[in-house]
Write a structure and sequence with these properties.
By secondary structure, this protein is of the alpha/beta class. The protein has eight helices and five strands, in the order H-E-H-H-E-H-E-H-H-E-E-H-H. The protein has a five-stranded mixed beta sheet, with helices on both faces. It is globular, with a radius of gyration of 17 Å. It starts with a helix and ends in a 14-residue tail after the last helix.
Length: about 210
């Protein structure tokens, strides 16, 4: 069997496991688990906090208002949504969109590690403090705050995957705070673009770029 077929079957098994998961109390209130979506050979993985109401209804990540903003941010740096892999640290919606508990984070950690191991992204963008703190911990890094971490590119190993991590605000937070939205846009056009594309956001084109 070709490697891509092996990967696909492993991924289907993972999605099925998430679909019947009862590791934490969130399975009692969810409508649909939200494993994630995107190509299994994506260079970029985006990790958010947890599904919201629309995501719980559809079983897809980032499809509500925050998802529309995320899609626009990706397009602003030349990335199509269907070329990145998107997931959350927690696969089921916490009631009333509260923060996931430590128990819920631990219950889903194995799933996230398997996703990272299957996709093997080159860059992981962490959306918000919950995702930032959790994934920094998986990489053995100390987490202080989203404001301290945002805009910084760090290269780490998560399992056997070497990745560039870059954290920023969650799009949902930016929808309600115009200041955060400006900073989120700056992060995408700056550090995130640099991590993903290997070029600084303010890079000027020269004659050599056209030769």
């Amino acid at each position: 069997m070709e490697d891509s077929e092996v990967k696909r079957k492993s991924y289907e098994k993972l999605v099925a496991e998430i679909g019947r998961c009862t590791r934490c109390p969130l399975h009692l209130s969810r409508r649909n688990p939200v494993p994630g979506e995107g190509p299994l050979d994506a260079d970029v993985m985006l990790i958010g906090e947890a599904p919201g109401r629309v995501e719980d209804e559809t079983g897809r990540p980032f499809v509500g208002p925050a998802g529309r903003l995320l899609t626009a941010l990706l397009e602003s740096i030349g990335l199509k949504r269907d070329r990145v892999y998107i997931t959350n640290v927690v696969k089921c919606r916490p009631p009333n969109n509260r923060d996931p508990s430590d128990e819920e984070l631990r219950a889903c950690t194995g799933y996230l590690l398997r996703q990272i191991g299957l996709v093997k992204p080159k860059t992981v963008v962490l959306l918000g403090r919950v995702a930032g703190r959790h994934v920094y911990g998986l990489a053995g890094l100390k987490w202080s705050s989203i404001r301290e971490a945002r805009g910084k590119i760090v290269t780490v190993s998560i399992g056997d995957v070497r990745v560039r991590l870059v954290a920023t605000f969650h799009p949902a937070a930016a929808l309600y705070n115009p200041t955060l939205r400006r900073e989120l846009e700056e992060d995408f056009k700056g550090a995130i673009r640099e991590a993903v594309l290997g070029e600084k956001g303010d890079k000027k084109k020269t004659l050599m770029d056209f030769m």
